[in-house]
TrEMBL record:
Top-level taxon in the UniProt lineage: Bacteria
Keywords: DNA damage, DNA repair
Keyword DNA repair in annotation: yes
Name of this chain's protein: 3-methyl-adenine DNA glycosylase II
Species: Streptomyces cyanogenus
Lineage: Bacteria, Bacillati, Actinomycetota, Actinomycetes, Kitasatosporales
Family annotation (InterPro entries): Alkylbase_DNA_Glycosylase/TA (IPR051912), DNA_glycosylase (IPR011257)
Length: 340
């Protein structure tokens, strides 16, 4: 069935902005699975760009839980409420084909429309600035994903606290490869096998030296350990409004507004959960909307006030516009935690 789809280049998105991503070699995932996939077809009610919609779920170009292949497919290896699962998504001719393997296959296919933005309402967004209007016009397929999974966004978000993205991606990659399990179906084998992130109990049992080898300091490791101890309570927040979900997440010591926003943007598709406390975002928003590269969080929120209810979408469109001020300060210094 997959052979009927044409070859198409793949795009993906990281931290809200579109970036070029080298497509994985077709040989990276075997063509045939030992166990047949469960299949679901779905027709979105408007334009859909898989790269823009699912890109925020990718944690770096070598994320073992996410892969974009040369045939236009996006693969995800997930730990669902029903168990591990692998999902392959492909769009063609206005239709989406989802294929899934593993104990979590049915859950993944049931969630497929929301994953691809079925619960999102792009029509509710009204541009108030020419730059934002132009970015939306150029990206009609942008939808806000809703994964329905909290921990898979919370743990990598914690790893991204106060470090460079490269350091955080390296830590996530190392820990998932070391302590995760093979992805069900064809993605779990081959030259670059995908992995499902560890279960909460496995995270809790990771020795301190393994966190150290991954470049994760005690503060972030402790936050992850506290979170996985209440994993079930945190996963329950998918049934709550985003604001209530953030409040419960922030009860966990070490999880603040920056982290909770990063989580619900993905787990809930929260269109208004703008990220505060980010090193670069206020300056980018300030530059795009007011020519102020020195804007702080308060000024960013003031500038985004016309987009109340849709502030996260507005921020993503600003990032996608490419209107980013030239860097004039050194990047965040890398720190060897072994020297602390």
């Amino acid at each position: 069935m997959a052979g009927r789809f044409p070859q198409r280049p793949t795009r993906t998105t990281v931290r809200g902005g579109q970036v070029a991503a080298p497509a994985a070699a077709a040989a990276g995932i075997p063509r045939q699975a030992a166990v047949p996939a469960r299949v679901r077809r779905w027709v979105p009610d408007g334009p859909l760009d898989l790269g823009l919609t699912l890109g925020p779920l990718r944690r770096g170009p070598a994320d073992p839980t996410f892969r974009a292949t040369a045939d236009g497919s996006v693969w995800r290896a997930c730990r669902t409420p029903a168990g591990p699962g692998t999902l392959r998504v492909r769009a063609y001719g206005g239709e989406v084909l989802g294929e899934a393997w593993g104990p979590g296959a049915e859950w993944l296919l049931e969630q497929l429309p929301e994953l691809l933005g079925a619960a999102d309402d792009p029509g509710a967004f009204v541009p108030r600035h020419r730059l934002v209007a132009l970015a939306r016009h150029r990206r009609p397929g942008l939808r806000l994903t809703r994964t329905g999974l909290v921990l898979e966004s919370l743990i990598p978000s914690v790893l991204e606290q106060k470090v460079t993205t490269d350091e955080a991606y390296r830590a996530w990659r190392r820990l998932v490869r070391r302590f995760g399990e093979p992805a069900p179906g064809p993605a779990g084998s081959g030259e670059r096998p995908m992995r499902v992130m560890p279960a909460p109990r496995t995270w809790a049992l990771i020795p301190s030296w393994e966190w150290h080898r991954a470049g994760v300091d005690d503060k972030r490791a402790s936050t992850v350990l506290r979170a996985v101890r209440v994993a079930a309570r945190l996963e329950q927040t998918v049934g709550m409004p985003a604001a209530e979900a953030r409040a419960r997440l922030e009860v966990v010591p070490g999880v603040g507004p920056w982290t909770s926003a990063e989580v619900v943007q993905r787990s809930h598709g929260a269109a208004d959960a703008v990220t505060v406390g980010d090193l670069h975002l206020p300056g980018i928003v300030g530059w795009a909307l007011a020519g102020d590269r020195d804007a702080d969080d308060a000024e960013m929120l003031r500038l985004l006030e016309p987009y109340a209810g849709q502030r996260h979408r507005a921020a993503r469109l600003i990032l996608l516009s490419g209107a980013v001020p030239a860097r004039r300060a050194p990047k965040m210094r890398r720190v060897d935690i072994g020297l602390l």
